[in-house]
Amino acid sequence: MTRRDFGAAAAGSPGDPHEQARAAREQPLLLHSMSVFRELYEAISGCREIATVVEVGVESGQVSSLYADLGATVHCVEPAPDDDLRAVLAEDPRLNLVEGLSPAVLPGLPVADLYVLDGDHNYAVVRDELAWIMANAPDAVVVLHDVLWPCGRRDFYYQPSPLDPEDLHPATADGPTVWHDDLTPAGFVGGGAFTVAEHAGGPRNGVLTAVEDALDEAGDWRFRIVPAVFGFGVLARAGSPGADEIFEALRPYTSSRLLAAMENNRIASYTRILQLQYEAEARTDDTNRLTETVAAQQREIARLRSELDRSRTELAARRREPQEPAEKPGQSVAPPAGEPELGEAVSHLGRALSARLRRTPGRPR
């Protein structure tokens, strides 16, 4: 019997002390994929047979393969698959692409043992999906992603949104942050892919609110949350095959205060990074604008200097020209025509150049 068991920890060794650091830097900055929940899906499939999966919201096909590896035929619902996703799904006969919007496509699919809802993260869509599943697949297990911050109590709308106007809250391109309750362009923004409801909370707003309302209507369904990676929710009807075993197997995760604390720390750290990135980009934009201003003023200074040098040369040349003798003894010779105006122009150019030099950004004073 071994005396040491590090479990899933990348502890390394005295000869390889950097194993955990390598594992950390190989992870994306933002963990969001359902693939990180593999052990939870394994726990579910260990408690009951999962022969058919309906996956709403397909990533790269990696997670779809995970369900297939557990022994299921998978129906992958995606409204707008790109060519790369089509190619990945076409290579695996266990994966079936269903092109369309959920919940409209659900009635045309086989009733599944497991529904994974990770599509449009808003009340209207999730509420309709759950209504159909609860009425037509009462023995299914339902997994929902993003039941905690930021989508739990605030609607997110993929763009362009297919929802009717009455199902939409007023929305904005700004995003939430955990550092204050207001939305900000330095927050969790969609970059054109999605918008978010201007206000959090209240009726018909957010994924978790949709789950709660569905539970209030159904009455005999149970729901638990694993507080990690934006929230992994599990829903099953009391008395359905394997339901009690599933919730018991997940209890160490759903009751973990450690996981909840780590998730709060994770989203705080990530939204701080978003703020720093936004501020760095803003400073870069300011620097670029200042550089353009300096360059334009330097060009103007060069033009004024050139014009001043030309005028001074012209004035000196005129002053060297031979003068006509006076018609009468003692009469002074008048300066060449235009010389006072030229001298005034030279003085004006000199003053303009001095003023421009004083206004040049960054010039010592």
Description:
The chain is elongated, with a radius of gyration of 35 Å. It is α/β, with parallel strands linked by helices and 365 residues long. A seven-stranded mixed beta sheet has the order 3-2-1-4-5-12-11, with helices on both faces. It has helices at residues 19-26, 38-47, 62-69, 83-90, 123-136, 207-218, 243-254, 257-320, 339-359; strands spanning 52-56, 73-78, 95-99, 114-117, 141-145, 156-158, 171-172, 175-177, 180-184, 194-197, 221-226, 232-237. 43% of the residues lie in helices and 15% in strands. Helix 2 runs antiparallel to helix 7 (243-254), helix 5 (123-136) packs parallel to helix 6 (207-218) and helix 8 (257-320) packs antiparallel against helix 9.
